[in-house]
Amino acid sequence: MRKGFLSRWFFIVFLFTAFQLSGSPYPDIRRLTQDDPLYRQVSSDIAAYYKYEKQGTGYLPSLSLYRYKPQDDESLFTIASRMNLPYETIALLNGLQHPEELEELETILLPNLPGLFLPASPKTELERIMAGWRDVSPLSPFTVVSERGEESFFFLPGSRFHAVERAYFLGILFRLPLDGGIITSRFGTRISPITGELHHHNGIDFAAPLGTPVYAARDGLVEYIGSDSVFGIHVILSHSQEYETLYGHLESLQVELHQRVYSGMILGAVGETGLTTGPHLHFEIRRKGEARDPFPLMPLF
Length: 301
Description:
By secondary structure, the chain is α+β, with helices and mostly antiparallel strands. The chain folds into 2 domains: 3-169, no CATH class; 182-297, Glucose Permease (Domain IIA) (Distorted Sandwich). The chain has helices at residues 3-18, 37-55, 76-83, 87-93, 125-133, 163-169; strands at residues 28-29, 65-68, 108-111, 115-119, 142-146, 149-157, 182-185, 188-191, 198-201, 204-207, 213-215, 220-228, 232-238, 243-253, 260-261, 266-270, 280-287, 290-292.
């Protein structure tokens, strides 16, 4: 068994039997420079952790949190670089679902160790994805106090985002909008099955039996519900980072206008309404109103 694995599990046991975070205020780091004594202390702890993980020498610091007010010219990535921490460590501790959300916070919390902070009660799409494949049963939750209130977290020292988690956080990933469909037409230039002429196809067509459930490809808001001669019954969801998804040729709908939906929620059922040669789902991903090829944005392609 690898030394790094043993040390990590030793650290987990040590951390949650010998150290529990309280609800007391966290000390303030004023500047991310060496003339700030707390920044020097945090930097020393992080360096000690990396040394122990790599060489098995030195000491393992106890987990501590500090408060910091980001400067106007700082981003999640510049702060992570200054702290020598993975950006996901800072993002998860502060409940960020995308890097740009840092701008909405007056203050953030910074830890003295790298790792992942998993909420004990997942609320967002990213948190539910992470909870689905990570085992936190050996850990004990602890309370973190921030400007959002009290939250319970599990801490996985040294862990990093998986590729799918990273894609969701960076805003480039969508799930399949239905199960078991057959792709009959891709994004790009094609011969129209209706007119027989070349045209640009702005999405993907999934052939599926009538009534097959259609799922939201990502958390979002029902922006539009309508019916016309082209898409038939269709719905458009708006998502973060100025993305939209369109679901066309539906037989029926199970959502209402302005309703908040979550990834995997049933929006309606496959139909053959509008301009179509048979039952299928027409699915589009748009950003800033421009259709994007869904294939690079979906993990199974």
